[in-house]
């Protein structure tokens, strides 16, 4: 029944007859609500002098689809630029700043394919999950890459041969990368216990992304770093020239000194950390 037509229910039409609404009950298919909402709006625009608005489930999902349609590209671009700038400021070597991005970008492409195969098997993959996957992989993946990248200069100073240096760096940083990545991936799978569909589907997607990032960090990253060698640290190549096992440890940075203090007094470090978290939690709750 057309709301403005004679005999329309009075509850659907304003007293002056200038505003009316009607209700459409679409099939229960969340995957197509956005598409149907867009179609409904296209039809409404052809109303001929009448302002028609589509709201409710159809309107919400149409807006959601429009907003997130290009979000992956925007988030990816912003994330890449941010990570590149931060790595450039930290290492001041263009190639070393670029290598982790290449590794994570390659891993992201592989993860997208695996997530697609996961969805093809009948599992649900939400748009939220694919959007979050970009930020998750570039955040976590870059962090894992830095564990190895930060170890390379020290080992290059210890060993003249870059292959020996990378082998030593992998023995020291590899277990930490693997343990951290597996912990995060398994933790993501806990989301399978969630009742909300979008949260439930986010778990496997995130776990796939983290696992692929770890695999790339343990295979592709050391390969590229070894190929680059000391030349990759240009224009600061002098900081990675071999000086021998005995004197290589003389270059001690701020975080190394802080780590040594933590090892010397672990109980005090734990107490300070717990106190800081407690203060933050109490401040948040209040």
Descriptive account of the structure:
By secondary structure, the chain is an all-alpha fold. Helix content is 67%, strand content 0%. It has helices spanning 33-45, 56-68, 71-91, 94-120, 127-149, 152-158, 162-188, 197-218, 220-228, 254-264, 266-285. α4 runs antiparallel to α9 (220-228). The radius of gyration is 27 Å and the shape is elongated. It starts with 32 loop residues before the first helix and ends with a helix.
The number of helices is 11
- The CATH architecture name of the largest domain reads Up-down Bundle
The main sheet comes to: none
Strand fraction band? under 5%
* Element-level helix/strand string: HHHHHHHHHHH
* DSSP E strands, number: 0
CATH-derived topology of the largest domain: Multidrug efflux transporter AcrB transmembrane fold
Q: Residue-averaged pLDDT, rounded?
A: 79
Helix content: 55-70%
